[in-house]
Amino acid sequence: MQAKPWGGRFTEATDKFVEEFTASIDFDQRLWKHDIMGSIAHAKMLAKQGIISAEDEAKITSGLEEIYREVEEGKIEFSVALEDIHMNVESRLVEKIGDAGKRLHTGRSRNDQVALDIRFYMRDEISRVRVLIKQLQKGIVGLAEAHIDCIMPGFTHLQPAQPVLLSHHLLAYYEMFKRDLDRFEDCFRRTNVLPLGSGALAGTTFPIDRRYTAELTFFPDVTRNSMDSVSDRDFAIDFCAASAILMMHLSRLSEELIIWASAQFGFVDIPDAYCTGSSIMPQKKNPDVPELVRGKTGRAYGNLMALLTLMKSLPLAYNKDMQEDKEPLFDTVDTVKGCLTAFVGMLPGLKFNKERMRRAALMGFTTATDLADYLVRKNLPFRDAHEVVGKAVRYCIEQNKGLEEMTLEEFRKFSDLISDDVFAAITLEASVNARKSEGGTATEAVKARIKELYEAGEVR
Q1: Confidence check: pLDDT of 6 > 60
Q2: Catalytic residue among 53, 127, 262, 278
């Protein structure tokens, strides 16, 4: 039985079930790299301040660097008896260098140590997520550029509404992911603060230099209240909240791809590499990747609620409950990176059926608003124009024809203001390109937005 680093107070060995129940090494071992780097910085600070000798610092640093290599090479088997990654690393260090290793924990607690490790780890993971979002945005812009001439029906209530460019539709997701990127950048800023030096909850009696530790670990600032430092998990909740919103956006895009890939729509073909077949139906090509991303959104939502519920009634400062922060946080990290990676790989291979989309845009009287606008330009009040067009649409439904199939004589049954220039006003191209307002779907407006993104350096 391995001795507990806190065992001096106790007269009984820990119950084996309790030992396993309370251990976190199975999931917090992913923090090993950040734990070692944080400990090296802490040791250097202790030596600088004369709290430990330069000789002990050199032994500690060398020992931790050896442990780093051992973990990388898979030579260390972590122990449940040592509870967590922090005690596993420290125990191995003491084995290697003796009493000098026992001096490492001077001036710190596992409470501020774990707070540092999680922030250290999350800082790296947020940076990776940001890179993936930028790659996804680049893929969206690439698709938009390649399909600038593709017209499709825009929908409200999933009913045909007005014709839009496919490029415009795709760039709507660019804007969503841009907001996601902003949220993760804000999350990074709040995560990037050093908590080490807060001790268990009240600070430390040793003359530590927190600013020097921050300098060594590349944190631009330190936390200001020791009790908040060890009990704060807002940064983890920030990440899970930003991730939940990101996953919601990915789920919306997934849903559209799933619908568009159906035989009933036939708008898009998803690459074979991102689909699977059926064990019984030979013809099937199932959009498994977007479906799974849509499903994994629930995990991200659940993890956010788990963290919020975990923290909602905890008194200051640290409580063992907070060990439960890591699994939902880590799961969200893995889920978000996996889903983004899947989309980054899948998007460039999407093949859109332009003709099918165009035919769909002609269905459902999508240029009816353009006919109303045409009448308004003839000086008819909009509400009156709306009624005229509504009656014309009803007539078309009864006659089983589209607006573009009506004759001038038929049009004039509904308004004398209509003349033969109406036919040019209600084509799909005219409808799209008439919407030149900033942010609109007109070809020139969409091209201008793409150009703006490149010039601003948002897409590289």
Answers
A1: no
A2: 278
Specify the DSSP class assigned to residue 74: T
In this prediction, residues 304-318 reach a mean pLDDT of 96
Phi, psi of 307 (to 5 degrees): -70, -45
Within 8 A by CB and 6+ apart from 374, the residues are 418, 422, 425, 426
Domain over 111-147+154-207+220-358 is classified CATH 1.20.200.10: yes
Q: Annotated catalytic residue: which of 105, 157, 169, 229?
A: 157
Report the topology of domain 363-455. Answer: Ribonucleotide Reductase Protein R1; domain 1 (1.10.40)
Residue 14 has pLDDT above 70, yes or no: no
Q: What is the pLDDT of residues 163-190, one digit of tens each?
A: 999 999 999 999 999 999 999 999 999 9
Q: Delimit the domains of the chain by residue range.
A: 7-106, 111-147+154-207+220-358, 363-455
Mean of the per-residue pLDDT values of the chain: 95
The letter for the amino acid at 303 is: N
Q: Which CATH number fits domain 7-106: 1.10.287.1080, 1.10.275.10, 3.30.460.10, 3.40.30.10?
A: 1.10.275.10
In angstroms, what is the C-alpha Rg of the chain?
A: 31
List residues bridging with 160 in a β-sheet. Answer: 155
User: Greater confidence, 14 or 69?
Assistant: 69
**Residue 169 annotated among the catalytic residues of the structure:** no
Asked if 249 is an active-site residue, the reply is: no
Q: What per-residue confidence (pLDDT) applies to 1?
A: 45
The span from the CA of 193 to the CA of 217, in Å, is: 10
